[in-house]
TrEMBL record:
This is Thymidine kinase. The keyword ATP-binding applies. Residues 185-207 are annotated as: Disordered. Substrate binds at I172, L173, V174, G175, Y180. It comes from Lentibacillus salicampi.
Amino acid sequence: MYVMNQSGWLEVICGSMFSGKSEELIRRVRRATYGNLSVRVFKPIIDDRYSDESVVSHNGTSIIARSVKNSDKILEHLQHHHIDVVGIDEVQFFDDNIVSVANELANKGIRVIAAGLDTDFRGEPFGPMPRMMAQSESISKLNAICPICGSPANRTQRLIDGKPASFNDPVILVGASESYEPRCRHHHEVPGKPGHKSKQAITEFSE
């Protein structure tokens, strides 16, 4: 990470599920507290997989967080407090105004650490994340490991009863290991996606 000469900036942590995004957010926030900086962490109220009062990574590490209904609530909670660092987890589930909120905080001299999925289960840009990344000073893109071949995985595979979910399924469905797993580009399957070819069709063509 580059050394900033001015206080107040936006840094983004992105990647597929199980790539360690929340864990990295927690690491950066904890490091800030070691320097006696005042910190607040927020997450969307929809994310209640493990706890509604903490950001919890898939490996079990956690940090206290406030669940909010929308991005404006973040500004309301910070109105009368001097805060040095703000962490925002699961950015993809927030409304589009979250980008303006993050910029407003950064412009006020606050370090903003935002983490989220950059693509949905279909492999498409997810919610406000593309704009958040475009506005940021730094981006850390993390990869998981594809359980099929062991290659770096930058996509999220949704599974329903063990089978790949259709392109036409709802985008937002909060889950954990029973619903999703990381995949590399070669093993990411989205039946019904325009231009998508199944592994069987590719095999038949190669033969």
